[in-house]
Amino acid sequence: MNYINKLYHSIAFSIVVLYCSYAYLYIFNSGLTGFKPLYWYFLTIGAAVGYVISKRSLSITLTSPVILIWLWLYIGNTIICFLYSRQGVVETQALIDNIEMMMLFYSFIIIFQIDGAVKTVRVALLVVVLFSVVMNFIDLFYASMSAVPGRAAGLYQNPNAAGLNMIMAMLVSVSLIPRRLRLVFCLIIGAGIFITFSRGAWLSWVIALTGLSVIGYLDMGRKGFSVILISTVAAFIVFSALTGGLIDVLTLLGFDTYLRPGTLARLGGDGSAFADYSYTSRVRAAESALSVFADKPWFGDGLAVDKHWEVGAHNTYLRLAAEGGIIRLSLFIMLIVLLWNITDSVGKVILIIYALTGFTSHDHLRQPSLLIILSLLVVVSKNSNKISNPDPSYYETGKSYS
Hints:
Layout: H1 3-20, H2 23-29, H3 37-54, H4 65-83, H5 89-112, H6 117-141, H7 159-173, H8 182-194, H9 199-214, H10 223-243, H11 246-252, H12 261-266, H13 277-295, H14 316-342, H15 345-357, H16 368-384, H17 394-397
């Protein structure tokens, strides 16, 4: 490995830790530094450009032509959506944000495709997810990092973002854990996810655990039995949480001291886990998005239209449909389909969760941490396709085929 590759392995590790732990946002939002997230974006893009220059060739940027074509289509559509929007300050910032994220996306792909970088990225994600579990418990019991008191979030500050990002990191890094300890590892991560009290994260963790069982990543003897057992137990826990039955258990364990009224409402304290403000506000946002989509189904009402509503869209599909109609929505679905067709079994589990959580999160294309995961899927597929008989799981072996 030459010195340039060693340098970029360190950069890849730092990038993953920085973005996937949300450290870059936390140190700015908490006032620890005035270093804006935008500056980190510039440094990341600059590192990718530097690597291309060091190779004295632009061919490095053409290793994933289908994704590159998609990127240009999405950027072009974003510009068009801006042109028929209100073109105010909010819309201009949304235009800049969207283009920045697409530049970051391809920068990640460039950096991660360096020989051996995939394993470096997976190790970094393992460090991030274990660190996040610890920080979530510290946040719940001792600190107040979360923007929602009574729900752990750690450096993520947003409990929903914490849950989703921890699940993604768990899926990518689980194969680094000895097979006999993988279920324990997933349960530890599950504990950190549980105290976010994010309903979407709970359900996603159930899907992740079931998916890992189906593809044979969890060593529990007979696959069929383990799949049924895990999915049944996990579903029971989630069902108990959503219907209020879990409140008594948490009270018995002494957690009631740390549960706030909003958290209790999410656990069904009022008879239903879907009677809290978060749920009702999302319903109103969905109604607004559907109304816009019904009026302008093909081209939508312009970029960042949801920023002018009482409550912004908490749904990536509806947000894109309101912004750019069927065309913009189709581009998002196209990305998922493209990745599905080139990825492996773990990647498919990741994409299932990514697609489903798009219904509960509005920024699936605007989170650097999620773009890192998608970039990894692109790079893993690219590398594994370089040999005539690719290993059934590149994640499992960590080999480099470059």
